[in-house]
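Many introductory courses stop at the sequence. We go one step further.
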Amino acid sequence: MNLSLLNNFKNSRLRNSFLFSKEMMLFYVLLLIVGFTTIINPVFLTTSNLLSILKQITIVVIVAIGQTFIISSGGIDLSVGYVMAVSSIVFATLLKIGIPITPAILLGISSSTLLGALNGLMVTKLRLPPFIITFGMANIAKGIVLVVTQSYVIQLNNPFITFVGVEDFLGIPVMAYFVPVFVLIGWFLLNKTVFGSHVLAIGGNETAARLSGIPVHKIKIWVYTLTGIFCGVAGILITARLNGGNPNAGLTTDMDTIGAVIVGGTALSGGSGTVIGSFIGALLMGVIRNGLVLMNVDLFWQTIVTGTIVISVCAIKEILKRKEN
């Protein structure tokens, strides 16, 4: 009788419903960590601290959305951190020499968009693994940043970036407003457009996608270009947050975003992706880091604990997936 009930449950619609989706399962893990951290330090659950977490993960969320598209298509991008830094440095340099804010923003985003498009062109035309192409681009972008800045921070004093990076609007940090906007944009593009369905089809089976008439090369170029745009926006925001252009601003962004995407449920092999999952993954990692800070855990140990939790979450998901099959 018990086995029968179990089999009925495994085959029921409930199991495949939203409450048992991979995004919600990750959300349940997030709630457990939030509850555990709050018990240890009640300050964690205060409004100011929660808003601070949302502000802190803004950059990772925006770049992770682009990374979600790339990984869903069967690729990977190791250059996002320094591509973002290029946008930041171009933007900060232009402001420093007196260029108005609007053209400075557009040129900053354009610089990272160009690098993203070059990634896509090289991946498709040279037919080399994205790992190699984007690793090379990361070094090129890093070199550009270091040549322009000579490793020095470009300090700024601009009312606009102070407002975006520091101020609140209606009691919420201005930067935090970018999170739902970009999550919604990413979710819509991946789940509700032909472009998104083509991205997933290419990641699932590139040969079959090509035979079915999908312009594989064109879609891949657009995927990397789109990620370049997201990196550009993130570059503007990190400049505002740091009140200047820092050549090391994107040092860990590539690993942070890949971690958020994989923890969030996007398959590293491609073919399936979830923007909402990437957001929850980034939030989960932000919550863990914030909780460790509140517990006065040393920075070096924070890195170890965060990595361990990421591996554990992925391992648990893989075990559950194998049991399902």
